[in-house]
């Protein structure tokens, strides 16, 4: 009994000692070791690692891939991490990558980017370079090589202005997009469809939460959300037609340089555009702007020579002439202004009007003469025939009628009838095409003239709005300015019976699995106030333009119009300080009363519309209808406007 009691006392003593020891240890952990554990906890912190998604791809109307992703090892330099060895580091990178030092310096000094951004200076870097840089980190401060994906273009330069390009987010974009989750080293759409559809193409970044120590070593992965690829774009554009339209424009510009203007100088034919629209939906089947560029330049990073070509070239190759520049439309405008004259009662479809060599407005004390393209008196004619032979003076008289109506009702709600009617066709407003920086053009009117007079110190329109304002607008001259796309939209309304459709390039937005995510509404929800008979009358007149006696007859000589009906209007627009702009606006299709496509061709300093733009259009029609067996027509010498 006594032994058992002794054992219990020993056991109790041991238990007591254990509690004392545990209490002492707990006190040590809570009091004496707190700072050490706090430091270790700080050293083992949580970190979010983001994974870039694959950008959406772009397909043409037939499912051909126009823009895809390609894996690349990308070498980046963060300027503010170079320290005092910046020059030496750049030299080492240049030697490793074969990228000229000047090119690297140019990219690092680009003022669009922040010094804290990792700026790409080389793509598709060999793995040996990646290994070398990782093995010698002290020789390459601020330099990193990352696995990434970049844009690739299976069709090369095709539709570069339309597709656009991507690039490192610049300081201004980052400030605007930071709240939407963009980082300083993200790639964004910078131009064209890449820019407009950035929210769809980008996708969602993936992220992984890691526990890492002070050395950056991962201790534990807590969870992963994979990236979501961006949506794909399915276009209305047809790569085959686009390629042949680009070829037709380039060849036509070369042919134009063999002709001479009235002063004996060869035409410069330095730039041009072609637009092909689906007349019934507004879908852009082709959109060409020449000169162009290679979008892959932006993938590799612009060299100083490429930068100079794009920004210092007088022909502005990076500008989309179909949407971003405006021009006098010349006689192509008569198809529209002729309808406005009928609408307002200044003309009828059966009336006859004099086509003299010159026109002077009755009662105009200035005696200003407006010249036709020929000094011959061609006699009286209908509006239809005036379109066929492109008589200026017939339309000059209608412009005078519009001016007289304005004078009689200058303070009324209908004072500016011509300008109001032209606004109904969409002029002086953006078409709404899904491309950035669209120009709006100009329809001059008395209010604009007053503003211009005040801004120009009364040198422009010193007497306010005068008859010449309306007279010249009627023939697409003077101060009226349109884009090729605006003109194509208006001609499509004539072709389809009066629907003003919004031009669009993207037909559908597709989810990563290929299912439709969003269909782009064609939005043919505006109508022009003209009867089917009036629109049919003009379509019939325009078919006469390509027939015997018309201003485009030579360009379409031998064309099988029994298989594909062609209706069009030539235009030759004078341009101060430059040679004439060549135009041809047309509508084509097997059924003459229901054209399928509208084609607008414009060549800067290209001369007569029937001589340069019309033959180009013929080649584009051959691309749209390859089975008609047209032998083609290389070009015509013409003096018609």
CATH superfamily of one domain: Penicillin-binding protein 2a (Domain 2)
Class by SSE composition: alpha+beta
Question: Can you identify the CATH class of one domain?
Answer: Alpha Beta
Low-confidence stretches: none
The CATH architecture of one domain comes to Alpha-Beta Complex
Q: Quick one: overall form? A: elongated
Helices, by number, come to 21
Report on this structure.
With 641 residues, the protein is of the alpha+beta class. Among the domains are: 48-235, Penicillin-binding protein 2a (Domain 2) (Alpha-Beta Complex), CATH 3.90.1310; 239-315 and 553-628, Beta-Lactamase, CATH 3.30.450. Strand 18 and strand 19 form a beta hairpin. The longest helix is centred in the first third of the chain and has 31 residues, at 2-32. 44% of the residues are buried.
Topology:
Elements: H1 2-32, H2 34-43, E1 45-51, E2 58-59, E3 65-77, H3 86-97, H4 101-108, E4 119-122, H5 127-135, E5 143-152, H6 160-163, E6 166-168, H7 171-177, E7 187-189, H8 192-196, H9 198-201, E8 206-212, E9 218-225, E10 232-235, H10 239-256, E11 271-278, E12 284-290, H11 296-300, H12 304-311, H13 334-343, E13 353-355, E14 358-359, E15 370-371, E16 379-381, H14 383-389, H15 392-408, H16 417-424, H17 446-455, H18 467-474, H19 484-496, E17 499-500, E18 506-510, E19 516-519, E20 526-527, H20 532-545, E21 565-575, E22 578-589, E23 597-604, H21 609-624
Helix pairs in contact: 10-21, 13-15, 14-20, 15-18
């Amino acid at each position: 009994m006594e032994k058992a009691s002794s054992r219990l006392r020993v056991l109790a003593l041991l238990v007591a000692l254990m509690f004392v020891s545990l209490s002492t240890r707990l006190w040590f952990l809570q009091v004496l070791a707190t700072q050490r554990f706090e430091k270790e906890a700080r050293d083992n912190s949580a970190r979010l690692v983001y994974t870039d998604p694959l950008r959406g791809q772009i397909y043409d109307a037939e499912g051909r891939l126009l823009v895809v992703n390609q894996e690349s090892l990308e070498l980046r330099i963060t300027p503010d991490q170079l320290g005092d060895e910046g020059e030496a580091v750049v030299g080492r990178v240049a030697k490793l990558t074969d990228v000229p030092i000047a090119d690297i310096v140019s990219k690092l000094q680009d003022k669009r980017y922040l010094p804290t951004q990792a700026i790409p200076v080389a793509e598709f870097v060999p793995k040996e370079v990646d290994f070398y840089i990782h093995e010698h980190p002290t020789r390459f401060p601020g330099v990193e090589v990352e696995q990434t994906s970049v844009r690739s273009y299976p069709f090369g330069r095709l539709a570069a202005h339309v597709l656009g390009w991507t690039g490192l987010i610049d300081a201004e974009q980052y400030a605007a997009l930071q709240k939407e989750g963009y980082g300083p080293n993200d790639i964004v759409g910078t131009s064209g469809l890449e820019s407009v559809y950035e929210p769809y193409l980008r996708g969602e970044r993936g992220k992984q939460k890691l526990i890492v120590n002070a050395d950056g070593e991962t201790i534990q992965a807590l969870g992963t959300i994979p990236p979501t690829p961006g949506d794909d774009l399915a276009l209305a554009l047809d790569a085959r037609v686009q390629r042949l339209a680009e070829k037709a424009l380039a060849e036509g510009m070369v042919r134009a340089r063999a002709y001479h203007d009235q002063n004996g100088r060869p035409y410069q034919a330095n730039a041009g555009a072609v637009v092909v629209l689906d007349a019934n939906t507004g879908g852009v089947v082709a959109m060409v702007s020449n000169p162009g560029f290679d979008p892959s330049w932006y993938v590799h990073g612009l060299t100083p020579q490429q930068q100079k070509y794009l920004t210092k070239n007088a022909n502005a190759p990076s500008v989309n002439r179909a949407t971003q520049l405006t021009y006098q439309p010349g006689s192509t405008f008569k198809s529209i202004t002729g309808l406005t004259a009928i609408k307002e009662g200044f003309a009828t479809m059966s009336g006859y009007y004099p086509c003299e060599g010159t026109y002077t407005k009755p009662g105009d004390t200035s005696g200003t003469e407006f010249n036709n393209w020929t000094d011959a008196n061609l006699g009286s004619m209908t509006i239809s025939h005036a379109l066929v032979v492109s008589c200026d003076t017939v339309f000059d008289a209608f412009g005078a009628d519009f001016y007289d109506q304005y004078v009689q009702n200058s303070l009324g709600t209908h004072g500016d009838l011509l300008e109001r009617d032209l606004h109904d066709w969409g002029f002086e407003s953006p078409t709404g095409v899904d491309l950035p920086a669209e120009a709006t053009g100009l329809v001059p009117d008395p209010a604009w003239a007053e503003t211009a007079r005040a801004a120009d110190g009364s040198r422009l329109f010193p007497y306010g709005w005068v008859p010449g304002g309306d007279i010249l607008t009627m023939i697409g001259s003077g101060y009226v300015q349109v884009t090729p796309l605006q003109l194509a939209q208006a001609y499509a309304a004539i072709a389809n019976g009066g629907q003003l459709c919004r031009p669009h390039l993207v037909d559908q937005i597709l989810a990563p699995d290929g299912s439709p995510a969003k269909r782009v509404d064609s939005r043919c929800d505006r109508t022009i106030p003209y009867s089917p008979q009036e629109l049919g009358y003009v379509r019939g007149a325009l078919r006469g333009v390509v027939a015997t006696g018309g201003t485009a007859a030579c360009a379409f000589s031998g064309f099988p119009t029994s298989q594909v009906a062609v209706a069009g209007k030539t235009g030759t627009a004078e341009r101060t300080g430059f040679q004439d702009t060549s135009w041809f606006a047309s509508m084509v299709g097997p059924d003459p009363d229901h054209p399928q496509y509208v084609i607008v061709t414009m060549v800067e300093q290209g001369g007569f519309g029937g001589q340069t733009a019309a033959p180009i259009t013929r080649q584009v029609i051959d691309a749209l209808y390859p089975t008609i067996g047209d032998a083609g027509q290389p070009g015509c010498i013409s003096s018609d406007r």
